[in-house]
Design a protein that fits this description.
There is one protein chain. The chain is about 15% helix and about 30% strand. It is flat and about 80 Å long. The strands form six sheets. Strands 8-11-14-17-20-25-28-31-34-37-39-40 form a twelve-stranded mixed β-sheet. A ten-stranded parallel β-sheet has the order 9-12-15-18-21-26-29-32-35-38, with no helix packed on it. A nine-stranded parallel β-sheet has the order 10-13-16-19-24-27-30-33-36, with no helix packed on it. By secondary structure, the protein is an alpha/beta fold. It has four helices and 40 strands. A hairpin with a 4-residue loop joins strand 39 (about 300-305) and strand 40.
Length: about 325
């Protein structure tokens, strides 16, 4: 896809300085710009590159005043970083603006769908599935029986949505995600063998939820595993049965949350965090990467370590830990004396 500087300026409500008909068809970093590419300058540390970049068009702040000649066409906006982000969002919308039902694909006779949907080749839509308007389901995705998907939701290639799952409006399910698989429920018998406990609940994703690639969210044993409005989950996260995650909480990659744990609103959880089951984590909690959480957590706590400590206590303790060999040596020297 090609866009002129004037078209881009119209989208961003900016002003063109240079050739309004200059065309771009790709994006680039300012220091790696090539002919036909669009870049941006927001960080003053990169200002020197605006004079040497080979990018055809650059987005800059209106406050930017060149100190030497520039060959690149400029688009001046109030905030270059925000405008570039807005342009990326627009580009994604254009790129993914597909409609129609490709073949071969399977749609059960009892399935219902709204207007302007896209269904990619080899996708499977089960019995009694309901799809809202503008839903996009990419090739090789699977939606089991009785799944509901709200308006403007996108499900990328290879995602597997098990039966009874409810997905809200404007959600994004990335490639390879698995929503609604059985929870890890087994009970030992008198012979020491483990019998499967049926998992008959479901998963509910509220509106504006993003699920990363290869992330798994297990269905509840009874009731629902619930991901509240605005939650953002990174790639390769494990959410166990009956977990509830409060609205606008963000979780980084490779975190695992065990069954029936409740996480509050507006939390920030780093990568590779492990959280045990059947505990409650409050609102506005921040957990640093690679921490292990084995207890209830109050609102507004900041934790680090395994087992996790309050953030300031962890840092103080770590100073002593680093000095431990020296401390042991000093004790040994004192004992010898």
């Amino acid at each position: 896809m090609k866009f002129t500087a004037q078209q881009i300026a119209g989208i961003l409500e900016g002003d063109v300085v240079g050739n309004p008909e200059a065309e771009v068809s790709k994006l680039s970093k300012i220091e790696e710009g090539t002919e036909g590419s669009l870049t941006f300058l927001a960080n003053p540390k990169y200002t020197s590159h605006i004079y040497t970049t080979e990018a055809t068009v650059a987005i800059v702040n209106k406050s930017f005043i060149p100190e030497q000649e520039i060959d690149t066409t400029l688009i001046k906006v109030e905030d270059a970083y925000k405008s570039f982000s807005k342009l990326l969002e627009y580009y994604n919308q254009v790129k993914n603006n597909k409609t129609g039902i490709e073949q071969p694909s399977y749609v059960a006779d009892t399935a219902k769908y709204g207007e302007n949907i896209y269904l990619g080749a080899f996708a499977y839509i089960g019995e009694n599935v309901t799809l809202g308007d503008n839903v996009k389901i990419f090739p090789n995705a699977y939606l089991g029986d009785n799944v509901t998907v709200g308006d403007n939701t996108v499900i990328f290639s290879g995602a597997k949505i098990y039966s009874e799952t409810v997905i809200g409006n404007s959600c994004v399910i990335n490639a390879g995600a698995i929503i609604g698989a059985d929870g890890f429920g087994f009970a030992p018998n008198e012979d020491g063998e483990y019998n499967k406990v049926p998992q008959i609940g479901n998963v509910i994703l509220e509106d504006f939820v993003d699920i990363g690639a290869a992330t798994t969210i297990d269905r509840a044993t009874l009731g629902s595993t619930v991901i509240r409005r605005g939650v953002k989950l990174d790639n390769q996260i494990q959410i166990a049965h009956n977990v509830e995650i409060g609205k606008n909480t963000v979780i980084a990659a490779q975190t695992g949350i065990a069954g029936s744990t409740k996480i509050g609103e507006n939390c920030q959880i780093g990568g590779q965090v492990g959280i045990v089951g059947h505990i409650t984590i409050g609102n506005n909690v921040r957990i640093q990467a690679q921490s292990g959480i084995g207890r209830n957590v109050k609102d507004n706590e900041v934790l680090q370590g395994s087992p996790a400590l309050p953030y300031s206590d962890y840092n103080k303790s770590y100073v002593h830990f680093k000095n431990l060999p020296k401390i042991v040596k000093n004790i040994n020297d004192l004992e010898k004396k």
